[in-house]
Amino acid sequence: MSGTDDLLVEPDRLAAELDSADPPTLLDVRWRLVGPPGRDDYAVGHLPGAIFVDLDTALCGPPGAAGRHPLPDPAALQATLRAAGVRAGHPVVVYDGGDGMAAARAWWTLRWAGHRQVRLLHGGYPAWAAAGLPGTAEVPQPEPGDVTVRPGALPVLDAAAAARLAAGDGLLLDVRAAPRYRGETEPIDPVAGHVPGAANLPAPEYVGPGGRFPAAEALRARFAAAGVTDERPVGAYCGSGVTAAQAVLALHLAGRPDAALYVGSWSSWVADPARPVATGPTPGV
Predict the structure, then answer these.
(1) Is 0.90 topped by the overall pTM?
(2) Quick one: which of 240, 125, 104, 95 has its CA closest to 176?
(3) Has residue 5 got a pLDDT over 80?
(4) Is there a catalytic annotation at residue 238?
(5) Exposure b/e, 90-128, CB count within 10 A at least 16 = b
(6) How far from the centroid of its chain's Cα atoms is residue 135's Cα?
(7) Active-site residue, from 101, 198, 234, 238
(8) Whole-number Cα distances in Å, 218 to 200, 201, 214, 246
(9) Distance between CA 226 and CA 14 in Å, rounded?
């Protein structure tokens, strides 16, 4: 079972670590699907020592047939992480604006890239500020890191693997809002509906306000109610692989570090008009 301490860190504990002789590397990955860019928030105030890393352009590849937030080019990711001061074997903490989605995708990306020592600041920047801890507008100049990106350290689903999982090889969770899953509305992608066979488990079922996760026992119960068992392989998808990365983190907290991410998610699935689409409230194999 995966432990909480190597996945999440609370603000007070992080503050103590930042006061140590060898503090963790901080990555600010604040991001919005729509609205002002996260870099604007970073410019106003961020954790002391934090470097801003853009989710869209640095932690993901260019949008296209592989989805709106596909896997990054390993060499480009390595250059980004080294420029941010990420060192081999040295802990990293990622944080966002509080909902935990961008930070979870950053957490997932670093772990996929082979950097295991990465945690998410539980509650993000709002939790840090609410604890009365200091922010700054000063932009640090980190020493270049030496991390080496080794892709594949976390399991990834492509469209074919996602289809097999949904068709009975395991359980594929669609973590988008129920109306999108049912095909009643689709505000972003050109086709509404879901992968045939996928089960719907909207994100608010496993993560609370402020991006905070319930205790592991509660998470296990919620996932079990959705059909997750120890015997069945499990994967998750959303619109473009950001919210689903948070689901994978929640599954890690619940004791399923083998959970796979369909990175391309719905935005990749519907890029091929030959792929089938299900609608309605049931999986619809």
Answers:
(1) yes
(2) 240
(3) no
(4) yes
(5) bbbbbbbbbbbbbbbbbbbbbbbbbbebbbbbbbbbbbb
(6) 24
(7) 238
(8) 18, 15, 6, 16
(9) 33
